Amino acid sequence: MGPTASGKSHIALEIAKQFPVEIISVDSAQVYRHMNIGTAKPDPEALNDVPHHLISIIDPTESYSAAQFREDALSIMQAISQRGNIPLLAGGTMLYFQALLEGLSDLPPADTQLRQSIENEAQTLGWPTLHEKLRKLDPEIAQRIKQTDSQRIQRALEVCLLTNQPMSKLQATSRNSHLPYQINLLTLQPSDRSQLHLRIADRFEAMLDQGLIDEVASILEQFPVTFDSPSMRCVGYRQACLYLNQRIALKDLHDMGIAATRQLAKRQLTWLRSIIRKHEVIEFDCLANDLANQICVRLHSIKSLK
User: Residue 151: what pLDDT?
Assistant: First the structure.
């Protein structure tokens, strides 16, 4: 586990050189087909060398939830284990890790018709108005959600309207958290946040050089996605959409993309601290020069991996 640009994918491939692993992506953006550059997917050579799972499994018009991730990950982990290999989960979507480790409340599945109705209402009234509507239905959950967080507002309203109960009340119920595996948690965190910020800037600029704008233009041409589609809310893609719709300049795309990625890293590190408080975790400095060696040496000392 670790924030964006901490080197998770590289370390996973280094681990694969020494252990019989298959990699499960824990990344809510890499699940989308056609979104390769901006999600920093492993290149074709890496995908060919080491089995990878939960990458490019849905179109940009579709949605993928933490509950779906948990169900899919557990099924894949079982299949990998039956093949005599070790499941290696690598990524930065901390909600997915939390769902796997702690389970999820019994919330209703998405309702396409209701979601569209909420979306239409938001286009007319604006998300702050819908946030106020949510506050009246579930003040506790509304307090946790920003007025601009359309995805979470939409889901919370959907749950309230489908169940006639506050989402916060449903989340407080018991979770299905049984996990039939011994999990070894490794985190990559920066000893110097400013150095991680430099990595983030370098990587986003490299994505632009590799053709991120063209990638997003192709998606907009092929699929009926909007700014509020879950896929286009991903960091980098939203900013590229704004640029392609002539709402911001190229320099704004550059600056806003880097700023949004830094904010993502900040949120990921906050999630990590929450997970560390509840679980036994082995921590590493993602900026260490011999990081891969440090991790592999530690893994060789874990009896369950021998």
Answer: 84
